[in-house]
DNA sequence: CTACCTTTGAAGGAC
DNA sequence: GTCCTTCAAAGGTAG
């Protein structure tokens, strides 16, 4: 990626070409988004009321018939999330089913994903992917799920997650994790994962259904086939399965499985279940693989045949086979990864840049620009991910995946470390054209790029690493290779001399200069070629800071920005 | 075809 | 307790 990170100002021009953005002012965009979001929320609220009445008084079939009407305003993930949030609010207000068969279960409003509008591709790719990733059972008929599993559409191919068509179409209680902001309240354990489930507001105990706990989850990596739907905690278990698999029962309940043999590409690495010989046997009774499971077997040899029907040629190397058979259970995504997943598409759409490395840099900057509350959402989300993951794969350890990626350039790193010398460093980006510096989101005491760290931020979720100080001390990390790091440029930054105890226990352990990503120094990345809006959504805070630090900004090297530690 | 790049955070091993 | 390493996603790029 020499174009991006190549040293020196000479690269600025190249980078300018590389990164060009659309014209729209992001601030305006934000405003209009907010306005429409509020409007959407109102609509959602009213529709929720209606639906709730339906839910509480109607039979299942009636509910099915009264699915929400098309709601184009829910086309984005954010809006859907708000929708979920409202649903959750209702849940917390005591919206529980009182009688069988769903006693104890909350009314969970669901986005109308049966709505053609939502399934016709207008949903942003990221949102679609995300939803499907989180809820592989999500019923998105029409173009994606069942429309025709025999003749997959491009949509099929573009979606990494196959979608299950629920035999009874969308059930009003189709479980969905409601990653609402409400739910991110500190110290509110995810109700669906905690055995001691108690509604925070009403105190209404939600009977810990057997399904919420273990029967479906006690999986070791070796037993992945028995994975239940991750959300079976919400599934009614009294004598019926939400997504029953009858032998030959429902046609291609899981298109990817059905098409496993013919469409290896569909069974992408991430979401392919550990489909062994007979998919039906290796899957949980629900037939739902977990997104985190990746079967190298599938990837390498998309064979629907079992071991009983050996694939020609490659039957040898039994030892290796043995290892390959172990499904690759991926790590749960951390907060930032979740954020990236959600925001990547947006960033990509806003600039012509496609290279992930560069996109990630932008996202990293934006991440720091997020408010505490916003970050807390993702921390909480990630916490739930981990929790769910640990329930799904109790015996799994992150260590299990060590070495599954090809060995990193470990030697190079250590070598660079050993041979460290100031002379060998590439210069950091000390210089930037003045007019660009003005726009540069740089400042001395802390870049405006860094988290605003509003005072109110103190309310960050406990789950979210409580980082008040640490984040301030967080370097901008406009960095790159370890060998380019240098304390030379940061004599004062040694181990966050700041008083905070958080230096060590912070969510940003990378503060350590010795850490892999401490990355205080940088190969210059000419981010000044990016409009500030790209690096971090502008806020009044940013602008004010920009203004007040204008003079300073002009003389400050971009990549050396850190928060003042005092 | 495969590893790298780049970001942050989590986890686990080593000390 | 601290430090260090690896991996998670993503997709273009280089070897």
TrEMBL record:
Lineage: Eukaryota, Metazoa, Chordata, Craniata, Vertebrata
Residue ranges constituting the HMG box domain according to the UniProt record: 329-397
Family matches, as CDD domains: HMG-box_TCF7-like
Compartments reported by the entry: Nucleus
Predominant subcellular localization, coarse grouping: nucleus
Biased composition (Basic and acidic residues): 19-45, 63-76
Biased composition (Gly residues): 1-11
Membrane-spanning parts: none
Alphabetized SMART domains for the sequence: HMG
Keyword line: Activator, DNA-binding, Nucleus, Repressor, Transcription, Transcription regulation, Wnt signaling pathway
Biased composition regions of type Low complexity, renumbered to the chain: 46-61, 451-470, 491-509
Region of interest (Disordered), ranges: 1-76, 297-328, 395-515
Protein name (database record): Transcription factor 7-like 1-A isoform X2
DNA-binding positions: 329-397
Keyword Repressor among UniProt keywords: yes
Gene Ontology molecular function, alphabetical: DNA-binding transcription factor activity, RNA polymerase II-specific; RNA polymerase II cis-regulatory region sequence-specific DNA binding
Family of the protein in this entry: Belongs to the TCF/LEF family.
Recorded superkingdom: Eukaryota
Presence of the UniProt keyword Nucleus in the record: yes
One Pfam assignment: CTNNB1_binding
GO aspect biological process, one term: canonical Wnt signaling pathway
Regions of compositional bias (Polar residues) in chain numbering: 471-481
This protein's GO CC annotations: beta-catenin-TCF complex; chromatin
């Amino acid at each position: 990626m020499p174009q991006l990170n190549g040293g020196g100002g000479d690269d600025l021009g190249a980078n300018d070409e590389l990164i060009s953005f659309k014209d729209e002012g992001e601030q305006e965009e934000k405003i209009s988004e907010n306005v429409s979001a509020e409007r959407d929320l109102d609509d959602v609220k009213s529709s929720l009321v209606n639906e709730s009445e339906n839910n509480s008084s109607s039979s299942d079939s009636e509910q099915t018939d009264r699915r929400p009407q098309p709601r184009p305003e829910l086309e984005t993930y954010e809006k859907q999330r708000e929708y979920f949030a409202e649903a959750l609010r209702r849940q917390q207000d005591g919206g529980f089913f009182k009688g069988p068969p769903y006693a104890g279960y909350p009314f969970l409003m669901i986005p109308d994903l049966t709505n053609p509008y939502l399934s016709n591709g207008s949903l942003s790719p990221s949102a679609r992917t995300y939803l499907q990733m989180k809820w592989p059972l999500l019923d998105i008929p029409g173009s994606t799920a069942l429309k025709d599993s025999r003749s997959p559409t491009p949509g099929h191919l573009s979606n990494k997650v196959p979608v299950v068509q629920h035999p009874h179409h969308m059930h009003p209680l189709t479980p969905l994790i409601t990653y609402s902001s409400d739910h991110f309240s500190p110290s509110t354990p995810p109700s669906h994962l905690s055995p001691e489930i108690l509604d925070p507001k009403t105190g209404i105990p939600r009977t810990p259904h057997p399904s919420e706990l273990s029967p479906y989850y006690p999986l070791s990596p070796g037993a992945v086939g028995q994975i239940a739907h991750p959300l079976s905690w919400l599934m009614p278990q009294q004598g019926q399965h939400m997504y029953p698999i009858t032998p030959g029962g429902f046609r291609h309940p899981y298109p990817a499985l059905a098409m496993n043999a013919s469409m290896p590409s569909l069974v992408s690495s991430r979401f392919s279940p550990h489909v062994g010989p007979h998919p039906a046997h290796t899957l949980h009774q629900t037939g739902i693989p977990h997104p985190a499971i990746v079967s190298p077997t599938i990837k390498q040899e998309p064979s629907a045949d079992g071991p009983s029907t050996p694939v020609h040629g490659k039957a040898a190397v039994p030892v290796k086979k043995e290892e390959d058979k172990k499904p690759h259970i991926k790590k749960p995504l951390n907060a930032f990864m979740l954020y990236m997943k959600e925001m990547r598409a947006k960033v990509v759409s806003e600039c012509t840049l496609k290279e992930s490395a560069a996109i990630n840099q932008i996202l990293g900057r934006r991440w720091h620009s997020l408010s505490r509350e916003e970050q807390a959402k993702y921390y909480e989300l990630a916490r739930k991910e981990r929790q769910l993951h640990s329930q799904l794969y109790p015996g799994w350890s992150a260590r299990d995946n060590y070495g599954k990626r090809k060995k990193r350039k470990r030697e190079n790193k250590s070598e660079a470390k050993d041979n460290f010398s100031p002379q060998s460093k590439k210069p950091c980006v000390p210089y930037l054209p003045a007019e660009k510096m003005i726009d540069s989101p740089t400042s001395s005491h802390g870049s405006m790029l860094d988290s605003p760290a509003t005072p109110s931020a103190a309310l960050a979720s406990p789950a979210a690493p409580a980082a008040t100080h640490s984040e301030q001390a967080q370097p901008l990390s406009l960095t790159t290779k370890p060998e380019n790091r240098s304390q030379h440029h940061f004599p004062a930054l040694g181990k966050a001399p700041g008083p905070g105890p958080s230096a060590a226990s912070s969510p940003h352990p990378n503060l350590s200069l010795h850490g892999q990503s401490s990355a205080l120094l940088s190969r210059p990345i000419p981010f000044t070629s990016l409009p500030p809006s790209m690096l971090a959504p502008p806020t009044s805070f940013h602008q004010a800071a920009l203004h007040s630090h204008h003079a300073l900004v002009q003389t400050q090297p971009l990549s050396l920005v850190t928060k003042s530690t005092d």
